[in-house]
Amino acid sequence: MKLKPHSPLPTQQRGFSLTEILVGMTAGLLLTAGVIQVFVSSKQGYRIQEALSRLQENGRFAMEFISQDARNTGFLGCGGSTSRFANRLNNSNQYAWNFSAAVEGFEATGAGTWTPTLDATVTSALSNRDVLTLRHSLGNPTRVINHSASSAPIQVNTVKGLSQFDIAMVSDCIDIAIFEITNDPTVANTLEYSTGSGTPGNATDDLEKKYTDQANVAQITTSTYYIRTNPEGIPSLYRKRGVDPSQELIEGVEDMQILYGEDTDGNQEANSYVTADNVANWNNVINLRISLLLQTLENNLASSPQSYTFNGATTTPTDRRLRRVFTTTLNLRNRTL
User: Fold this and answer.
1) ∠ at Cα 69 (154, 273), nearest 5°?
2) Is the peptide bond before 231 cis (omega within 30 degrees of 0)?
């Protein structure tokens, strides 16, 4: 009997050698490191673009806030600079109520000092930053319907936007009177201006004339723009209106510098641009040249501190934020009508 040949055992499986494992691990680590590097670079690029987009938006909004008030600065209805002006408020020459001065500037001339001297109601302003005050109308004027006597309530077409204790101006093409509304104007669309209530209150309840239906009434206020640090420690643009507390408008506004265009020969063009401490007559200021320095809210965006030039000086900061300068020239159009 012939025996079958013996079948060999199946070939046994072999594992990876140590060298192969190390090579595979190295390749995997290199691939992972590459993926991580791409992710980190993409994330950093996104952070930079996001921060710059927000910075750009903040700069645009900051300029828009100031521009809106500048466009309405010095509004006197159909009256002009030759109209008779009667401010019936108490303490009418004080900072918040001095509506005869449409624009005022305060030049930063040292640590915590401004020229002219900054009013004490503007608090916590950062040193070496300029301060701008604009006195302007708010909202749309409303037409006078009836005013039977110089001390009688004024009936108007609508009181939309007007409230008790607002400061208002009634004007025709001859006279202008400033007063505080002392009643609820929604009652019969009437505006009263009694003495003895409100802040600053009215010094008299006589507007010196009876206004006809050719006159208009508009709310007016004093707005001051300046730079201070917000509760998070970020320099920001603040606005103070009347006697209300200052309100933060835009964060990340690091500096503000302003030049004032003076028309000294009456041709409705600025002959020169000067700092606030060199303005000869505020009534001649017809333009504002405003420069804002904004910083990104996030730090560590750049690989090293980025130098910037602002107001003629180059500075290298200690942080790694990004900064941009925004500059615009605004026309005080009510001064050139």
Assistant:
1) 130
2) no
E strands, the chain, in order: 84-87, 103-110, 113-115, 131-146, 154-156, 167-171, 175-180, 190-191, 216-229, 235-241, 247-251, 253-262, 272-274, 285-295, 308-310, 313-315, 323-331
Residue 74, classed as helix, strand or coil, is: coil
Which amino acid belongs to residue 304? S
> For the whole model, what pTM was predicted?
0.86
For the segment 110-159, what is each residue's pLDDT rounded down to a tens digit? 889 999 999 999 999 999 999 999 999 998 999 999 999 999 999 999 99
In the predicted model, what is the mean pLDDT of the chain? Answer: 90
| DSSP-assigned beta bridge partners for residue 154 | 191
- CA 132 to CA 213: how far, in whole Å? 35
Q: Is 191:198 a contact under the CB 8 Å cutoff?
A: no
Question: If you average pLDDT over residues 19-35, what whole number do you get?
Answer: 74
DSSP 111-157: TTEEESPPPTTS-SPPTT--EEEEEEEEEEEEEEEE--STTSPEEES
Burial 169-186 (b: 16+ CB within 10 A, else e): bbbbeebbbbbbbbbebe
3-class secondary-structure state, position 186:
coil
**Confidence band of 218 (pLDDT split at 50, 70, 90):** very high
